[in-house]
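Bug #77: duplicate submission created two jobs. Keeping one. Sequence:
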Amino acid sequence: MARKRREWVPYAYHHIYSRGNNRQDLFCDETDMQEAFRLLTMIHKVTPISISAYCIMTNHYHFLLKSEHVSISKIMAAFNRRYTDYFNRKYEHVGHVFQHRFNSDPIPFTLELLRASRYIHRNPIATEPPMVARMEDYPYSSYMYYKKSITPPFPFLNLQVLSSSTSIIAAEASRLSYCRYVEEEE
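Kept job's structure:
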């Protein structure tokens, strides 16, 4: 049976996520994490993408990604295929690395964009036990760039989208108001 065609909304962000096959680790060390960033940078050079939030955990990843000219299916096929090749070569692994192609949810509204980014950024403290005490201390999440006002080293990372979106929840449209929103307990 053919797969259902994946919805792609140009100019809209999509919450994209995938995990390791059988929930196994995808990113086993620092080098694996850096390879993910290298691949995203390489993809961005070929076809510009915008990621406003990401979190790479040991067995899964989350991206809040927008692609205006190329479908997210093509973007993510390139990422997953290249990462699978890297992983299989490095670990002498054979077979599937990812459990599925990837999952994606189009984010049509600004408030949903904020909620999705909050969920993504809270991943490291939502584990049992938490991976870090403070979200900004997790090195494989974009949250530190919002919290610490650090210039991101990645050309695909766009901090303006979420920082300016916070005017919906606070009078001050800034990184600080976004950080307050993310850090609030539900």
